[in-house]
Write a structure and sequence with these properties.
CATH superfamily of the largest domain: Fructose-1,6-Bisphosphatase, subunit A, domain 1
Strand content: 15-25%
Largest sheet: 5 strands, mixed
Shape: globular
Mean pLDDT: 93
Helix content: 25-40%
CATH class of the largest domain: Alpha Beta
Structural class: alpha/beta
Radius of gyration: 18 Å
Length: 257
Amino acid sequence: MTGSTAATADDHALAARLATETGAMLVGLTRSSAVDRRWSGLEYEGDRRAHLQIVDALAAERPDDIVLSEEGRDDPRRLGAERVWIVDPLDGSSDFGYSANWSVHVALVVGGEPSVGAVAVPGWGTTWATDPAPDLVPRDVESGADPRIVVSRSRSRYDGMRLSQALGADVYAVGSAGVKAMSVVRGEMDAYVHGGGLYEWDSCAPVAVARAAGLVCCHLDGSTLEFNKSDPWSPGLIIARPGLVEDIVSVMFDRQY
């Protein structure tokens, strides 16, 4: 690589700008009468346009970097690259145009670490980023309160029931990984738990932002998350207040698959 191998302040600003601008474009698309909504037409067009907007901007502004996008082809050069952008142009696409529960993820991995991240949730009118970082989330759940844990809709019957029975948790279910993670960042939820597999583009930017907010991000057994792996699939995820992580691991560690 010929460019700088470190993340810079400009990288943080770029990630936030791309996530915000792509989110704004997608909102405009939901209001367009020119898109055929039948047979998932809106979802397909949103994925396509968001992908092109982000990768074209990165090609122009960071031409020496590699991009891994959910909607693009995997470039094997990324495995030897120091700087890799990992993006989900439209996370929660089944909600796109029908609810506020979708997001745009833009992250930069430097040396395997998610050093830069931005998550735009246009339905909430906010983009969270790693610089400036979000306000720190308090370490512990309020004394005497049941933990509020958000899980994926597809796994509410499994993960949600287990967490509710073992921890007395109030469990909520949402589709988008970015929306779930940012609900913890902004203090509405105490943890986001995903017991199944997900991809690096689902989790990379949310993890970067959540860590900047003082949250713990790990696998279900408490082990360290890794990014820019040869296989971008990853088993299990916890994003939680630090004081709650050990309890969640004790309940979920054997569901790592």
